[in-house]
Amino acid sequence: MRENYSSHQLGYGYLLKNQVTKEELIRLLANTLHKTLFVIDTNIALHHIDLLEVKSTLTEVVVIAHTVLKELRNLNYSVYKRLFALLKNDQRNFIFFPNENHEDVESER
């Protein structure tokens, strides 16, 4: 049996290792053309990594869940490294969201 600890203190994710607050997320979205938060799943990352790497108004603020990174690491390590590089890029707004440990995404059994 695996125990999973949830926390409400994880906020809205992490941008360049800094926790994203609600105010910062609103500011990031206000500075984008389409006012859109782009949340990707594993299939989008796996099959469209080339598009994600191109700086575009459609991908100004992108959220990557921890689950996506875990799945990519097992499916295609090359794509995992490319996506991880985007998370570390200070010219892009790729937000890491620790969904496995976030209290608001926990499902009851």
What CATH first level would be assigned? Alpha Beta
Helix content: 25-40%
* Computed Rg: 14 Å
- Number of E-state strands: 5
Assembly annotation: single chain
- Spans of at least 5 consecutive residues whose pLDDT stays below 50 are 1-7, 101-107
Query: How many domains in all?
Result: 1
Anisotropy-based shape? globular
Class from secondary-structure proportions? alpha/beta
The CATH topology annotation reads as Rossmann fold
User: What strand order characterises the main sheet?
Assistant: 3-4-5
CATH superfamily: 5'-nuclease
Largest sheet entry: 3 strands, parallel
How big a fraction of the residues is strand?
15-25%
Examine the secondary-structure arrangement and name the CATH architecture: 3-Layer(aba) Sandwich
Distance between the termini: 14 Å
Number of helices: 5
Description:
This protein has one domain (14-100): Rossmann fold (3-Layer(aba) Sandwich), CATH 3.40.50.1010. Helices cover 39% and strands 16% of the residues. The protein has helices at 22-30, 42-47, 49-53, 66-75, 77-88, and strands at 14-15, 18-19, 38-40, 61-65, 93-97. Helix 4 (66-75) runs antiparallel to helix 5 (77-88). The protein is globular, with a radius of gyration of 14 Å. The two termini are 14 Å apart.
